[in-house]
Description:
Blueprint: E1 2-7, E2 10-19, E3 22-31, E4 34-36, H1 44-52, E5 58-60, H2 72-79, E6 83-85, H3 90-93, H4 101-106, E7 116-117, E8 121-123, E9 128-133, E10 142-146, E11 151-155, E12 166-167, H5 172-182, E13 189-192, E14 196-198, H6 201-224, H7 229-236, H8 242-246, E15 251-252, H9 253-259
Parallel strand pairs: 4-5, 5-6, 6-7, 11-13
Antiparallel strand pairs: 1-2, 2-3, 3-4, 8-9, 9-10, 10-11, 12-15, 13-14
Helix pairs in contact: 5-6, 7-9
Amino acid sequence: MIIKKIENDFISAKTKSGIYPFKLDICLYIVDGLLIDAGSGAILKKTRSLIKGNKINSVALTHVHEDHTGAAAWIKESLQVPVYLHRHSIAEASMKSSIPLYRWLVWRNRDAFTADPMPEFIETDKYRFDVINAPGHHQDHVVFHEKSRGWLFSGDLYVSRRQAVAFKDENIGDAIVSIQKILELDFDTIFCGHSGIQKKGKEKLRSKLDYFLTLQEKVRALEKEGLESREIDRRLFPKKNLWTVLSGGEWSSLNMVKTI
Ligand SMILES: [Zn+2]
């Protein structure tokens, strides 16, 4: 894990999850005793030693996906601190995840855990994090906004300026509405669950919105010509992504087209 000290009471931890060639980045944050997201099962050992070396008073999860909740069960058992999750995802978290092979190779399964219902805001000694619903990547996805510092802990809302494939749980139409709502907030730095610290985060998030809106216009224009989703997908994304093949279509540009 690459640990970066951002401030006295604030660190970020970045590492890769999975086995070659199925490796993806994960980023966790500990701010004034609050752990934001809990990594994947594949990095559990590293997350455990990170946690052992830092005081954790509570945990806030942006969403229930296995790459954000991998250490939640262990934390709940060994630290007995609140582990907050969107209330609509608590039932899902109470059962061990059962994921297809391609996701298992990268993330591994998540153990069952008893989550605590997400409050409207989370206060630490020094900070206040407003919890804001931001569906799109997942319908119960939330982000954490520390207004006085201009920080946005964005989970999987941002990840990158462009996006070529959408996951089966994703809804790009909802993501557009969420990004528009989040852009109304005061923030400058994004702390992303995968791509790490993004300075000028607002500009970057705006450019993701522009990309989605342009794509939406193209999809609508082709729809008007009478084209079906599959044909629109073939025209707009002629090259198929490796993840689409491996995931049997769970992660695909077709999901982008259908939900935009
Ligand atoms: Zn996710």
